[in-house]
Amino acid sequence: MASQAHSLSYSGCNFLRQRLVLSTLSGRPVKIRKIRARDDNPGLRDFEASFIRLLDKVTNGSRIEINQTGTTLYYQPGLLYGGSMEHDCSVLRGIGYYLESLLCLAPFMKHPLRIVLRGVTNDQVDPSVDVLKATALPLLKQFGIDSESFELKVVRRGMPPGGGGEVFFSCPVRKVLKPIQLIDPGKIKRIRGMAYSVRVSPQMANRIVDSARSILNKFIPDIYIYTDHMKGINSGKSPGFGLSLVAETTNGTFLSAELASNPQGQGAAMLPEDLGRNCARLLLEEIYRGGCVDSTNQSLALLLMTLGQQDVSKVLLGPLSPYTIEFLRHLKSFFQIMFKIETKPCGEELKGGDKVLMTCVGIGFSNLSKTLK
Amino acid sequence: METKDQKKHRKKNSGPKAEKKKKRHLQDLQLGDEEDARKRNPKAFAVQSAVRMARSFHRTQDLKTKKHHIPVVDRTPLEPPPIVVVVMGPPKVGKSTLIQCLIRNFTRQKLTEIRGPVTIVSGKKRRLTIIECGCDINMMIDLAKVADLVLMLIDASFGFEMETFEFLNICQVHGFPKIMGVLTHLDSFKHNKQLKKTKKRLKHRFWTEVYPGAKLFYLSGMVHGEYQNQEIHNLGRFITVMKFRPLTWQTSHPYILADRMEDLTNPEDIRTNTKCDRKVSLYGYLRGAHLKNKSQVHIPGVGDFAVSDVSFLPDPCALPEQQKKRCLNEKEKLVYAPLSGVGGVLYDKDAVYVDLGGSHGFQESEVRPTHELVQSLISTHSTIDAKMASSRVTLFSDSKPLGSEDIDNQGLENSYSDDETEEGQDAEVTDKQYMSGKGIKRQKLETEEDFEVDLPAFADSDDDLERSSRDILESEAVREGGKPELLQTDDSSDSLNMEKSLTRKKATFTTSDSGHCTAEEAFASEDEPEGNSSLSTEEEDSENEEAIGKKFPKPSQVVSSQKLGSGNLIDETSDIEDLLKEEEDYKEENNYSTETSGALKWKEDLSRKAAEAFLRQQQTTPNLRKLIYGTVTEDNEEEDGDNGEELGGLFRVSQPASECKHKADSLDCSRFHVEAPHDWDLEEVMNSIRDCFVTGKWEEDKDAAKILAEDEELYGDFEDLETGDVHKGKPGPDTQIEDVEEEVKEEIDPSAEESAKKKHLDKKRKLKEMFDAEYDEGESTYFDDLKGEMQKQAQLNRAEFEDQDDEARVQYEGFRPGMYVRIEIENVPCEFVLNFDPHYPIILGGLGNSEGNVGYVQMRLKKHRWYKKILKSRDPIIFSVGWRRFQTIPLYYIEDHNGRQRLLKYTPQHMHCGATFWGPITPQGTGFLAVQSVSGSMPDFRIAATGVVLDLDKSIKIVKKLKLTGFPYKIFKNTSFIKVLAKFEGAVIRTVSGIRGQIKKALRAPEGAFRATFEDKLLMSDIVFMRTWYPVSIPAFYNPVTSLLKPVGEKDTWSGMRTTGQLRLAHGIKLKANKDSLYKPIVRQKKHFNSLHIPKALQKALPFKSKPKTQAKAGKTPKDRVRPAVIREPHERKILALLDALSTVHSEKMKKAKEQRHLHNKEHFKMKQKEEEEKLKRQKDLRKKLYRIQGQKERRNQKSSLKGPEEQLK
To answer: Plastid: is it a keyword of this entry (chain B) (predicted)?
Structure first.
């Protein structure tokens, strides 16, 4: 027998998605122990179980073993299969939680992925579908993943705690990825946004827009914030509203920020004006951090750089998020790849905080699932 | 002499003279050659058909594009690895002689016995690794995968042999390296003509196999048992200048053709168990792609292994350093072949002989120390191996029960004390890497005691230099594994207060959190060292180095945690400086303390140097890197800590969830929350991002206004050619100033001059770009663009890590091809070492991600047309795919029109079919070949099939046809009741005679019966069947060919699983034949058909046409109907006879007359034709004359018209 690639072992449920995704891509089995072992309610939560089910759906031949209490998970990855499917996500987390991992996996499937995800489209924890659509998709396009069928569509909007949203995501497959050289983020030429409100007064969205503009107008005049009020079945099961803002630069970099209202029955009610202003400030913070990739998609960019051909890829990032830092460590253990990390201190120019230049040589990954005809 | 006798002159009809005449004649007639024709008759050469023209244009374009190769990024390193030259041929063809001659040609050295690869420097920029390939198919397959160039030796006196063709086929499958044929034994031909003929025949056969025009070399004969010098020299020149196209598999996988092997197993383990798994180190040039540490490799003939360690060594056969001169001098003509005993080491079965002189293998010039501290140590010339060997001896002479890592370290250290040499550098390199790689594992093994053991070891040696060296090594070790060791000390020293303080520190951090997964929290593990550093003061007197070790990680940790915690990076640099200052102070203190302690005087040097080294490193490596990669917390440590307290051996004390635990179970979210938001209402905060917007200030080179101004400056001056006006651009202020500067302070300020020069160059470049754009407009094709892009990427790849030293570089890109590396591999079967045969190549083929996994592999396969048998499904067969050779059980299938994969029992004879097996996953598009056996030698062609990998999956969909049968037991009109058939309602069924039907409903009463309808009534004798598809399973059988583990001399005898046919043969079991399937002689019975009887009623109804016309034969005519015979009278008879005669005469007359007339007509026709011809001829002549006159007239006219104006001018 060919010796199975030696498995990696982790403990704790944090970074579960990273580990499973990297395991799937690298083909190395992973064992995760002590998942909330000391917790009153030990083991995997519903949303994690749902995520594992989703992984099982998109792969063929994966072996998943979970012990009785759910505190230990063994995952032996199969081959990414893809195709058309549907998945009901847990309402405990947003669809973004699932979509982020799918974005990593989708280009390497056997058949192009066409998936309908149901659940919470916008919440306060995970990056919302709108933000991913505005930032992650252009990022993937930089790597040569692009076709007419590449889309992410919000069919229905669902807010926590009820959910009821629906998202359609389809992605073409690629055999190899292009290396990228994103060193110059360019200058922000426009800001776009989406203020949404479901099962509340449509006026909420307008109030959000006004307040957000009041702050952003000091920097750039080209701002347009769409309002999106969904009705009937398209508005999900719970009321709520929120705002997502995206700043686009001359070089095609997208920086985003978002805020959503507190879920119904949790926390104090939020004024739409406050939300708009805070979200605009968050966008300014994001701009201050800067880089060619916004902070939520750092890990996605780094992963796709790793999975490129054996060429040098470079990307300029803002400060690395903790998630990204852990991701880099995981990349090292799964793919034996290290990034050259150079801090670029901000100079005289007024361009926000320090940046980090990440450089790596791709591992020469090729899509082993794609059929040769 | 009489003129009569003279021969008549004969005109020449051919030859140059005749041609000349003909030409003149034609010229006379004004019928020129080709070019004139174009002029003479322009209509004939005009565009006749646009379609045809388009077609011809397409064709030329097609031919042009066909020549294009897909552009690939050129990833060849600056100093490429030696080129692998495989010398292949049947036995007794002169392979070894050729290798010897080549080596002698390049190096002026004579190797008597060649074993394994020999690396030589063949030119200023090229090295060769020459290896011989015998006739063992295992060896042929392995070497074809790594070869860059194949020298295919062919015995001209014999012609091509089967091995040659086999090898060509193997090469073809695995990427086709460059192949050069070499004909030997040409002196055996007595006649020159035969020689020529043979050469030509062989050449053309070779061309059909390789490619038309492939180079075939002729070695005409031997002189004193060697080939002729001039020929070898020419061959060498050819090899040296040859160019290679990168092969897909080779460029995408790292691989090593090992030229040295060492057994590193603990001798004690071998003593206790001779069959224990071994730990070996393999050496060789890295080729292909970058190799990452800890990656997986496959050794063909042995199996899959995980690399336990990789390190790079100085090049034992380096290229000459300066490239200025034209040829190499003698010193640079190196040869390296450790397996053959060249390059310092000679291997015997159980000993290693070290050759200290007579080789150029290790010279001072080659030794390039990477560390100046070690540089001083490097002085002697003996080899690594020698020291390794000796180090092992010293190690076990004192035999202390230490951990294996310690043994390794100490062993190496001891070896330094024996002879401080360049070895130090190498070993240190490996050592360091080892530590940095395994950092954490190591600490677990090491304890404080180890250090204490180490220290006296230092103390009892007296040599100063040695001491310092060891110290440095030690200190470096500490530095590298800096933080981990510190952690370990905490663990080991069980002082409670320490742990308490630690936890306290952690607690403070936790409380400061806002409840979210914050940056600080995430880096709590990084904060730990801070706590430790405070503790370190307690221990600093006793353990100096350790304190230093502790100190090192501190600044980085503090800085990084601070930086990330606040999300504000501005004051980072100042922090570093502060901390570095602090550290220097600390260091001074340290020195002071050590000096006062007196006894440890030598340590002073150590700390200073270590600190210096640390500072250097601090400057080069960014802190963020250390933060991310340097301090990966692993939970294993904690576990060890946890396990300590047990109550009564049953209950465990549940400790409060530590920091790391908390982190491990916290929220999994990719969003990066802002911890300390700025106040965006403040003007200065707002200003900090002003330039991020298009409304802000632009960079110098991007500012639109500036660019415009520059353009003006560049293109301002122009002259309007039509009007003759000269427009002058305004001289820019910059240029003016520059002019002044240039004039005035040319000597004073070189920077100004430089800038001017730069400006000038810029200007030039811009102009050139403009010109290029204008000139090539529309010319640059997609292909050109693609090529340009690839080139750019290649440049970037080269430039990116160029300025970094190798040690840092290998961490980022892995070990790059061209490096001489040493690879340690553990758990190698002992047979590999015991049965080591240097003649067999050892290849370490790197595996990509998930290439070590197994699954179902689908491939397109074709039985080789020269293979005698066809292949049977489920017969074990040996595949060579990727790096591997393995035996597996394939199933052959063919895809139906609807995509169904139908199982085949046997491969088709001359057609592709699919094959699926369970085995290692190999990327799609990889070629493969199959052989039925790798053992022994067969006279026939051995390659059974070839093909390509199409698809990989974890499940298969191959089906085979299964016919279920049933018999009718009750038949109505179209409905029948049928028993024994599966009851798939609605399924389509059929009888053998072709009546189609459908299952309607299952019946309850007889088991398995059902009602079905058919398109016609069945007979009771009909058999009804249903066609179903049954999925087949593939046996999960994957058996790597372990031919290298066989004893020496029996390496080509590996035999795996046998086929059922072979087993039956071996055991004498005869297959029971199905009697029904046997062929019997066909006996044709005479059939009797009864006459067709049509009922009368039917006959009556039939139309007349169809009525049977079988009236009975007319019987005897009745007498009354019979006519009486006529009897003539004699007179009458006479008349009749006369009339007969007359008519005969008449008819004869008529016939004759007709004949005559025909003749006459013919003649007349002929005459007429002649006349006609003459007439025509006359007319033709007349016309000719007329035309000629006409033409002459015309010409005259033309001439006169041409002349006219000239004359006028005159």
So the answer is: no
Asked if the model's pLDDT at residue B1053 lies above 50, the reply is yes
- Total Cβ atoms within 10 A of residue B1068: 6
**B-chain residues near A351 (CB < 8 A):** 689, 691-692
Task: Dump the DSSP string for B430-461.
Answer: HHHHHHHHHHHHHHHH--HHHHHHHHHHHHT-
Task: Give the number of other CB atoms < 10 A from CB of residue B366.
Answer: 16
Yes or no, beta carbons of A38 and B661 under 8 Å apart = yes
Q: Which domains does chain B have, with CATH numbers?
A: 83-320+327-354+811-826 (3.40.50.300), 849-958+1037-1067 (2.40.30.10), 961-1031 (2.40.30.20)
Q: What is the pLDDT of residue B662?
A: 52
- Given CB atoms, is B569 within the 8 Å cutoff of chain A? yes
- Please check whether the domain covering A1-79 is classified as CATH 3.30.1370: no
Q: What is the pLDDT of residues B333-380, one digit of tens each?
A: 888 888 887 765 544 445 555 655 444 444 444 344 444 444 444 444
CA distance A71 to chain B (A): 11
Give the residue ranges of chain A where pLDDT is below 50: 1-3
Task: Please give the helix or strand (H or E) that residue B256 lies within, else none.
Answer: strand B254-258
User: How many Å apart are CA A276 and CA A214, to the nearest integer?
Assistant: 9
Q: From A335, which residue of chain B is nearest by alpha-carbon distance?
A: B849
pLDDT on residue B78: 86
pLDDT, position B984 = 83
Closest Cα in chain A to B698: A187
Residues of B in contact with A339 (CB under 8 A): 628, 812
- CA dist A325 and A313 (Å) reads 18
Task: Please state the pTM of the whole predicted model.
Answer: 0.71
The pLDDT confidence band at residue B936, using thresholds 50, 70 and 90, is confident
pLDDT confidence band for B681 (50 / 70 / 90): confident
Nearest to A284 among B657, B689, B920 (CB): B689
Percentage of residues in chain B having pLDDT higher than 70? 67
Q: Show the tokens assigned to B121.
A: 């420097």
Q: Do B814 and A189 touch (CB under 8 A)?
A: no
Q: What whole-number distance in Å separates Cα of residue B763 and Cα of residue B713?
A: 9
> Which pairing describes strands B216-218 and B178-184: parallel, antiparallel, or unpaired?
parallel
Nearest 5 degrees, angle CA B1057-CA B1060-CA B1062?
A: 80
| B969 phi and psi angles, rounded to 5 deg | -120, -10
Closest partner CB to B567 (pick from A97, A179, A319): A319
ipTM score of the complex?
Answer: 0.92
Condensed to tens digits (0 to 9), the pLDDT of residues A251-278 reads 999 999 999 999 988 888 889 999 999 9
> DSSP label at B15?
S
Which CATH entry fits the domain spanning A188-289: 1.10.3720.10, 3.10.20.30, 3.30.360.20, 3.40.50.2000? 3.30.360.20
What would you measure as the largest C-alpha separation in chain A, in angstroms? 66
| CB atoms A179 and B950 under 8 Å | no
Q: Give how far A140 is from chain B: nearest CA, Å.
A: 17
Residues of chain B with C-beta less than 8 angstroms from the C-beta of A305 = none
**H, E, C per residue of B711-737:** HHHHHCCEECCCCCCEECCCCCHHHHH
How confident is the model at residue B402, as a pLDDT? 42
Tell me the average pLDDT of chain B.
76
Across the interface, do B919 and A2 touch by the CB < 8 Å criterion? yes
The answer to whether the CB of B569 falls within 8 A of the CB of A354 is yes
The answer, for B369 touching chain A at a CB cutoff of 8 Å, is: no
Which residues of chain A make contact with B850, given a CB cutoff of 8 A? 5, 26-28, 368
| Best residue in A103, A351, A360 for a mutation probing chain B (most B CBs within 10 Å) | A351
